């Protein structure tokens, strides 16, 4: 008789971000330079004032804080939301251990084990892990690359709603697609939630990073959403502070808030040093976002321009976040990703991509797609994209999609 | 039709530590000094070298770390465990967001929803919250104050084991009782786990704080425990660093480790600044523990001596941690705790206690008991205990236990 682990422990997937990691390690050991377009870890410096705030703090005893976060950080966060055009009070803000914990507490609070959570795919692969931890079933609705990953028609949502459906989850701006949901898409979705008595869960980690003058609409700003909306948020991407592990759960639904707070009391308090850093972050001027937004937009423009110029590559122009989803002329992007690391190099360089299959729940979808995170400076990004272009020319498994074949034939 | 929250959200209790908080607030607003003996928040300074390590760190980008923690911190932790007499390799150490997350990941990994976890009561009240979050049922075995909260007889464990029993959970040294389980108690328990194919989960947050020359036995040092033992650990109490939110899950069971690691990947990484602090903590010399141990032992001695001198108060001598559980000559320690804050003062001072009912699962048990955390300097502790003595003389709801009544009568 041997000790078994739980079913959820068995079901819990290996992070899709880790699958290619051993190949990247091997490539580096061979002396290749590997450009990392695979992970949403910003390269932009953490603003020095954030770390300085931690350095300057006088901390005789690094003590527990209130379970919902320190008063001073919650007040500053309310100020940040105000400047972002979102009016919430401190008692609608629960400070969490990064966006991860906001997601976990939200699922634990809003859904029973066995309940269904509707999520447009492709979606942030880690939602699957949280759903397994919370015993929740994700029902995916497919958004297509042809439609630029816009919200699928409401009818598609209506079709999958069952008595077990409790919530719809969006990431806006979206990881992995970069799609920024329009106000009208969100209003439609809230209407659906109202008719079917569902929560609208909105992951807004990339709020500030929208391009071409667009602004993301927070679900908190949808009239009539008070009882339905829970926003999951984090300072990770906003301020290049992923390691701080500070996020927030924001809702005007008091019952949800109070239950989420009881889950928060379970772990006593969020990270204290991270909250000090977060206080300084909440006081950064708008110009901080303007600068980063300009930088990310230049990178997005470069990435899209280069990708669209590669034969057989299809890629919608993402309006936000720092990702591009692209269709590549390969049968299996995971094999291509391995090949890039194990068998390819261009001037002793190669790149690491995220195969998109990790972002789809429906089997076999996204097999020819990849997600590229433009978290390199323009110079390195250019070099990485040149590697990709070269690789696609050399790849033995190259398959041109029909419409691209026609173009190619026309060029012959 | 209104939106409901989940059953587990409804079941999740308000932290027992928070129930008296509004009364304490009110007392402070009346200008009373409130001695906090209610919470295990050490008053001893966080060692300056820990915060200095954070200040000195050069952090251009505060990035995600490996999901199991940084390599350098895991190596240093292995060194700490070695010096603590526990031989583990870095790949047996998963860095967690404090002990809380180690507990959550352990329950999610080792038990299915509906499975049973046997825990001697009184136990750390928050285990109940983790069990609800993980859908696990706690089955309590009562340890008694008369036995000094020693491990209940194995027969009591045998009696409650069912096909759904998956694990036994101990806190050693114990919060809330201060009991240090003997090696022989632990060996017996491991034998039981071996016979019934159970996990032995050991919360060892207070490892270093044992008095009178005693040493706590880590469950990791029980021969034959390799597959059974999971240790949940934290730097919170050890280094007065509760706000850092850094802990660890340690096990030699590879299947458990790998599943726990997949849960850890879900939240990407533990707090980065906290790990920097943890690295410095892992390098503190043994003299750090010697000093704190001496201080805590002096406080324990004072607390026990004063309590035992109060008529009607019963209290075993705790061997470790920084808690004393005491039986008070009151009908309901929760009402007494309220009365202390709302209606009593001695030289404009009062104290806040933890009513022990929050540490018992069996209804009505512990109603006459309180937990006192000796996390005040000797001077304040003396003053707080004088308040308690005075309060017990004045309390209108005072009830003397029979054996104490006899003594009192003999004195008449």
UniProtKB/TrEMBL annotation, chains A, B:
Keywords, comma-separated and alphabetical: Aminotransferase, Pyridoxal phosphate, Transferase
Keyword Transferase in record: yes
Gene3D superfamilies recorded: Aspartate Aminotransferase, domain 1, Type I PLP-dependent aspartate aminotransferase-like (Major domain)
Name of the protein: Aminotransferase class I/II-fold pyridoxal phosphate-dependent enzyme
Cofactors demanded by this protein: pyridoxal 5'-phosphate
GO biological process terms held by the UniProt record: amino acid metabolic process
Molecular function GO labels: pyridoxal phosphate binding; transaminase activity
Pfam family, one: Aminotran_1_2
Keyword Transferase annotated: yes
UniProt domain Aminotransferase class I/classII large: residue ranges: 33-336
Naturally occurring in which organism (per UniProt): Hymenobacter ginkgonis
Homology family: Belongs to the class-I pyridoxal-phosphate-dependent aminotransferase family.
């Amino acid at each position: 008789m041997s000790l078994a682990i739980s079913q959820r422990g068995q079901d819990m997937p290996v992070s899709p971000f880790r699958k290619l990691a051993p190949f990247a390690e091997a490539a580096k050991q061979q002396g290749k330079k590997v450009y990392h377009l695979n992970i949403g870890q910003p390269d932009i410096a953490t603003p020095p004032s954030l770390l300085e705030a931690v350095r300057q703090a006088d901390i005789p005893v690094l003590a527990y804080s209130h379970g919902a976060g320190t008063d001073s950080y919650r007040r500053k966060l309310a100020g940040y939301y105000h400047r972002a055009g979102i009016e919430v009070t401190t008692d609608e803000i629960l400070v969490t251990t990064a966006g991860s914990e906001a997601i976990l507490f939200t699922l634990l609070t809003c859904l029973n084990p066995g309940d269904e959570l509707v999520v447009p795919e492709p979606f942030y692969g880690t939602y699957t892990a949280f759903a397994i931890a919370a015993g929740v079933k994700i029902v995916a609705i497919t958004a297509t690359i042809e439609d630029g990953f816009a919200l699928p028609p409401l009818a598609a949502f209506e079709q999958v709603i069952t008595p077990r459906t409790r919530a719809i989850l969006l990431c806006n701006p979206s990881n992995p697609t970069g799609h920024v949901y329009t106000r009208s898409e969100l209003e439609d979705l809230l209407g659906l939630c109202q008719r079917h008595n569902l929560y609208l869960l909105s992951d807004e980690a990339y709020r500030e990073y929208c391009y071409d003058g667009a602004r993301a609409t927070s679900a908190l700003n949808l009239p009539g959403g008070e009882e339905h909306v829970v926003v999951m948020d984090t300072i990770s991407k906003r301020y290049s502070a992923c390691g701080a592990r500070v996020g927030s759960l924001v809702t005007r639904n008091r019952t949800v808030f109070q239950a989420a707070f009881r889950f928060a009391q379970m772990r006593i308090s969020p990270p204290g040093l991270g909250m000090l850093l977060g206080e300084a972050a909440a006081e950064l001027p708008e110009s901080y976002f303007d600068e980063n937004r300009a930088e990310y937009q230049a990178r997005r423009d470069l990435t899209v321009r280069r990708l669209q110029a590669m034969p057989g590559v299809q890629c919608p122009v993402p309006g936000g976040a720092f990702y591009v989803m692209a269709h590549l002329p390969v049968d299996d992007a995971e094999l291509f990703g391995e090949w890039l690391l194990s068998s390819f190099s261009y001037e002793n360089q190669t790149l690491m991509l995220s195969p998109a299959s990790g972002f789809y729940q429906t089997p076999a979808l996204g097999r020819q797609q990849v997600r590229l995170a433009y978290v390199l400076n323009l110079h390195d990004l250019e070099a990485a994209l040149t590697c990709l272009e070269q690789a696609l020319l050399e790849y033995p498994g190259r398959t041109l999609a029909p419409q691209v074949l026609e173009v190619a034939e026309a060029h012959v």
